[in-house]
Amino acid sequence: MARTQHLYFLVHASHERFKVGIATNPLLRWAAIQPRAQTDFAESLVFDISGEVRAKWTEETLHRELSDSRFRMPSDIAGHTEWFNFAAFDRARAYASSKREFLGISAGYTVSARPRPSSGERGHVRTTSRMSLGERVSLSALRNASTADMVEAYTSTLIARDALLGSAADKWGQVILYLHRDRITPEEVLLSNQIPMWESGPRFTRIFGSIIYDDTFIRLAVLPPFNGLVDRDNFATWVPTAPGFERVRSTLDRLIAATQSLSVAHSARTLDSVRLWS
């Protein structure tokens, strides 16, 4: 399975230059390019690249846009042609923001530096397969930050459309949100399927579940442990350890709190007229 590619703007701490590149794991790539003390993590940006575009094309398009601002680096440095004068950084950021659909990228976001290695690990770059669970969870923050942004935008749309009628917990440990068909379409609700699964180290979990509708209601499932119910499954214990989990949980708590609690009997899902899965 192909790994998700990311576009990045790596800002040198001197603010004289920045690099435009692509990587499956920007944090590890940055560490290979320069010491962490030389990276301005507050200014450096990461953009998720859609699987529908070629990552190399996205990168080269940015390079062409900034070609008049190249920063000369020694030719023996890997990626020496991908550095640009920091004076062009605002232009690069504005271009990426205004051309997101064209470039096939998400909104830009910042990521944190990885914790310093222990004294016994200095000078070593550990492979992903040999990382501890804690280290893998730390790296998952990169993808989860983007996922949390999408959850916040999606829930804001549901609330803004005033389509929420109520919610009820079912026997499978899900919270089912009921939305009125006159105020929102199934296609709009189905946008939840574009939200990536939540990553916690080597494991992944969906945030939203099945979407079922009939002529009156649309039912959207919010899955545990994101729905605030008591965790019923063994896997649920590791999800809250992933960076950003509480941000998603609080967003969904606000969404569920915006609905009235309903008493609904779910005798059989097969009674629903149409079922749509991702």
Please provide a brief summary of the model.
With 278 residues, this protein is α+β, with helices and mostly antiparallel strands. It is built from seven helices and eleven strands. A hairpin with a 5-residue loop joins β1 and β2 (17-23).
Description of the molecule:
The chain is of the alpha+beta class. It contains seven helices and eleven strands. It folds into two domains: 6-116, no CATH class; 150-276, no CATH class. Helices cover 28% and strands 19% of the residues. A hairpin with a 5-residue loop joins strand 1 (6-11) and strand 2 (17-23). Helix 5 runs parallel beside helix 7.
Task: Give the topology, please.
Blueprint: E1 6-11, E2 17-23, H1 26-33, E3 45-48, H2 55-65, E4 83-85, H3 89-98, H4 100-103, H5 133-160, E5 164-169, E6 175-180, H6 186-189, E7 198-200, E8 203-205, E9 208-213, E10 217-222, H7 245-257, E11 274-276
Antiparallel strand pairs: 1-2, 1-3, 2-4, 5-6, 6-10, 7-8, 9-10, 9-11
Main attributes?
single chain; 278 residues; alpha+beta; 4-stranded antiparallel β-sheet; 7 helices; disordered C terminus
Number of domains: 2
Beta-strand percentage?
15-25%
Q: What is the first-to-last residue Cα distance?
A: 18 Å
Number of strands: 11
Instruction: Figure out the total of helices.
Output: 7
Shape: elongated
Order of helices and strands: EEHEHEHHHEEHEEEEHE
> What structural class do you assign from the helix and strand content?
alpha+beta
Strand order of the largest sheet: 5-6-10-9-11
Helix content, binned percent: 25-40%
Radius of gyration, whole Å: 22 Å
Mean pLDDT: 78
Q: What characterizes the major β-sheet?
A: 5 strands, antiparallel
Stretches where pLDDT is under 50 for at least 5 consecutive residues are 114-131, 265-278
